[in-house]
Amino acid sequence: MPSSVCDRRWILGVVGAAVVAATATACDTSGSPSPSASAPTTSPVAPPPWPLTDLTYHPCSVLGPDEIARFVLEPSGKQATPPRELPSCSWSSIQTGQSGGFTLRFAPATSDLSDLDQRRVRDPLERTITIAGRRAALTPTLRPDGRNGSCSLYASVPSGGSFYLGIAVSGIATGVDWDVCAKTIDVATVIAARLR
Asked: Where is this region: Disordered (predicted)?
């Protein structure tokens, strides 16, 4: 066979393969890559109220757009999920500067807080409170100058377990004048109403 016939067949083969490849990729119009075989598949979270197990792979679902706007948070939270990390979600406030910026973190937990009297209190500032009719432990962090630093809260959930909610202010070294624990309680009350 002359060389030009072989060259034409080779070129037609290459062009044909390119057309098949282009056609195959053009059929996928979703714009998102298909999940890899090793990636865990999770279904979307159901509407609230949720048991804590429903939030294992969707911890950022615990606050909706209205709550995110109400608490002056960035619209998208930073999510951590198993198997690499324990489930949690962190949001940063839109406010900036020493007096207003803060980070909020939510994490479902397996610890049972139904009998807070039986557990050891490790921090003398920890106090027992009620969040949406449920027992909770609240711990403020105060600075030596008496200003507010951060606040953490563990609240029990009727279906079992508990959740952690913490707010750390940007000026944690110097503290802030606003009541960090009041905001923590406010956010925790919204979250508790969405859990069963």
From this structure: 27-47
